[in-house]
Amino acid sequence: MKICVIGLGQMGGNMALTLKAAGFAVIGTDVFETARARRAEQGLEVVAPQALPNADVYLLSLPTSVQVREVIESSPGLLERAPRGAVIVDTSTSDPDVTRELAAKVEAAGLEWLDAPVSGGPKGAASGKMGMLLGGREATVARVMPMLEALSAKRTHVGPAGAGHVVKLANNYLCAAHLISTAEAVAMAAKAGVEPSACLAGINSGSGRSAVSEVNFPEWVLSGRFDSGFTTGLMRKDLRLARDAAAGLGVSLSLLEQVVALWHRDPQAPTDTDDFNRIVEPILAQAKSEDPR
């Protein structure tokens, strides 16, 4: 299986190296020369975008649906250049409506489609321990399963094209909400004299636990590292996509609206380039003043 990875950032570059280490024939490309040079130094075969090779699978790891559409539809894009029968796998977190539109065009061109948004960050991409949500035909999932197994610890086929991106937006909405609610719970407990680590230990032994309380807080918040590899700007983008998807479906989700508003309330705290876990800092700061009792 020959794989071309398009987008060699923290996620795509690490996925490409993981696949290479697993024995696949991998070629990577990126519009940025610095990204190509970095991965070449790490031993990956890279080419400029205009030299896109024939491949069995084109694995996309791009910022938004805008770039995904450009790679597929531009002239010459994958619709023109990919050999018939090749599979396009979009690991980006994309707009489900755009995904369904592009999937139809891809299949009409004699190609196969799979949306496969990922979780686990750069560390998961580098270790092959990501989670993947799959949207597409069962036969396509089966065809690329060896590649998916090399990249992920868990894979969930959730439905037809676009379903993977729908569930990914739902997941990221919950993660965004859990960061705020967990921070508020920890801040309340800290103000009452309970150490944050003790509060989290208690939460994680009960029904209020989440991946945020079990992983994000100890790994990136309490440690002060804030280096998860996922930015606030990307989370804000995903929340807007979730809000727009709900609106397009005619579903009124008041909590989602509040979460979107909270994440956009102050563009400087945190900034779009900051680690997304920093959204908790203004909330936790409330507990740092001296206990008035």
UniProtKB/TrEMBL annotation:
InterPro entries: 6-PGluconate_DH-like_C_sf, 6PGD_dom2, 6PGDH_NADP-bd, HIBADH-like_NADP-bd, HIBADH-related, NAD(P)-bd_dom_sf. Signal peptide: none annotated. It holds the Pfam family NAD_binding_11. GO terms for molecular function: NAD binding; NADP binding; oxidoreductase activity, acting on the CH-OH group of donors, NAD or NADP as acceptor. The active site is at 168. Residues 162-282 form the 3-hydroxyisobutyrate dehydrogenase-like NAD-binding domain. This is 3-hydroxyisobutyrate dehydrogenase. Keywords: NAD, Oxidoreductase. SUPFAM superfamilies: 6-phosphogluconate dehydrogenase C-terminal domain-like, NAD(P)-binding Rossmann-fold domains. Residues 2-159 form the 6-phosphogluconate dehydrogenase NADP-binding domain. The keyword Oxidoreductase applies. Transmembrane segments: none annotated.
